Amino acid sequence: MTQALGSFPGGLVLSGQKKRSTQTPIRRMPLTKILVLPLQQHIGEPAVAIVEIGEKVLKGQKIAAAEGHVSVGLHAPSSGTITAVGEHPIPHPSGLSATCITIETDGEDRWIDRQVNEDISQLSSHELRQRIREAGIVGLGGAGFPSFIKLNPGIHHHVETLILNGAECEPYITCDDMIMRERAQGIMDGIEVMQLALNVKNCVIAIEDNKPEAISAMELALASRTQLKNTKVVVIPTRYPTGSEKQLIQVLTGKQVPSRGLTLDIGIVLHNVGTAYAVGRAIKHGEPLISRIVTVTGKDVKHAGNFETLFGTPIHELLAFCETKRQAEEPFIQGGPMMGYNLAGDNLPVTKTANCILVGVDDATESTTPLPCIRCGDCADACPVSLLPQQLYWHSRSKDLEKTREYNLFDCIECGCCSYVCPSQIPLVQYFRFAKTETMNQEQEQQKSDHARIRHDNRQERQERERLEKAEKQRKRKAALAASKAAKAKKEAEAAAETQTDKQET
Ligand code: SF4
Ligand code: SF4
């Protein structure tokens, strides 16, 4: 469908490198002997393990429960036995370890009982959100934000439009493209659920024009859904980073999300097409989120493609399955070349946010020592948020965090356009990530010290109140004692006086 489109400043037209992984249909990664499941696979509080070592579990059984509001649970991706609950390396740029549950699979892949639910019209928004939360669903576009929260606008926001993000603008990544080509009806199931949960008037499925097969498949599936009359497929130009939330909204509606604001502030909610598919499976088929489509690609991957992979599958097994040429310890990228991050080891599990494993970037330039900034301004021209990366760079480098805030550091979406075009090869995004982390650490420290000060003030206030109460009690006790002494003395005096009178009369 054609519609007048808006635009955003900057951005880049990149070589897609997507063909390599779209030549074969989605394949299933075979079940591995061991599955390692980090308790933190989403933004928010980590889940809490509810299983013990030695316990037998079924496929789809909850093994960790959500903790706090911004959190979701975790489910066993296959049947087997819990063999460990403890530290294990996780896919993180810093090489961190974190608490994980390890399952030794039994090869039977036995499911829990699943509740199939074809008619969802009787379910309330609240019930739908609860089930989506129970199913452990998070945004599968890469960020991992719990989906039930984005489906709950609250009383202060009204959602006009739901956007399904099928832009997938990063080079190499094709998992959304392939899921739209092959599972369009499943995505429509999820869109139906999301629309019911949000009670929205309009829905747009946005797809970049470099995915003609996905566009046809989604249009065909949509045409068969009478209950999705308010929904349309909109084809948008291929330009990086159109798939980022705020840029996609600008392209589709011409509206801008306020600085440091939410898409909800302008009545819009976005979900990734893969997330919609997971929501459909959860609500209509009773399946929690236990796997995802992962693109495995790059010039060193012999059988590149998209693989339905259970969470916890060791990455080295996935790479071996694709016959990847990679020297031990040679880094690879999780995510795309622009926004992904390098991982050094491969004894790491596939998690909910692992959209792509990239081994060998085709046109990678030798990394050289960055040269001094020549103030060419190319970075500012490329920035899709109209920031001034050169200034941000100076202030991040000199750790002047106040100034980085003044230059709207937190509006930076870390798209990497500035680093990509910089002729001096300055890794600008790395400076911005560092400055953001430092600022957040400082804010946390400030919060901690504010809390400590408030606690200290409260304690002093309580101690003073207790001292005054004690003094008042003592004063009252003394007064009561004095009064009783006086009464006693008075009584004695009266008695003495009476005795004296008796004597005189005698
Ligand atoms: S692109 Fe690089 S060299 Fe040019 S102004 Fe920006 S930081 Fe400086
Ligand atoms: S990484 Fe940040 S500063 Fe650089 S182009 Fe993207 S949004 Fe702009």
* Oligomeric grouping of the chains: single chain
Give a count of the beta strands, DSSP E runs of length 2 or more.
17
The strand order across the widest sheet is 1-14-13-17-15-16
Give the N-to-C terminal Cα separation: 127 Å
**Largest β sheet strand count, sense and barrel closure:** 6 strands, mixed
- What's the CATH first level of the domain at 19-30 and 115-334? Alpha Beta
Q: Name the helicity range.
A: 25-40%
Spans where pLDDT lies below 50 across 5 or more residues: none
Mean pLDDT: 93
What is the CATH topology classification name of the domain at 19-30 and 115-334? Rossmann fold
The 3D shape can be described as elongated
Task: Describe the fold and architecture.
Among the domains are: 232 residues, Rossmann fold; 116 residues, Fumarate Reductase Iron-sulfur Protein, Chain B, domain 2 (Orthogonal Bundle). Helix 1 packs across helix 4, helix 3 runs parallel beside helix 5 and helix 10 crosses helix 13. The protein is 36% helix and 16% strand. It is built from 13 helices and 17 strands. The model has no long low-confidence stretch (mean pLDDT 93). It is of the alpha/beta class and 506 residues long. It binds iron/sulfur cluster (SF4) (2 copies).
List the helices and strands and how they pair.
Layout: E1 27-28, E2 34-38, E3 48-49, E4 56-57, E5 62-65, E6 74-75, E7 80-89, E8 97-105, H1 125-134, H2 147-150, E9 161-166, H3 175-182, H4 184-198, E10 202-208, H5 212-223, E11 231-236, H6 245-253, E12 268-272, H7 273-285, E13 291-297, E14 305-310, H8 315-321, E15 332-334, E16 341-343, E17 356-358, H9 378-382, H10 389-397, H11 401-406, H12 417-421, H13 428-505
Parallel strand pairs: 1-14, 9-10, 9-12, 10-11, 13-17
Antiparallel strand pairs: 2-8, 3-5, 4-7, 5-6, 7-8, 13-14, 15-16, 15-17
One iron/sulfur cluster binds next to helix 12 and helix 13.
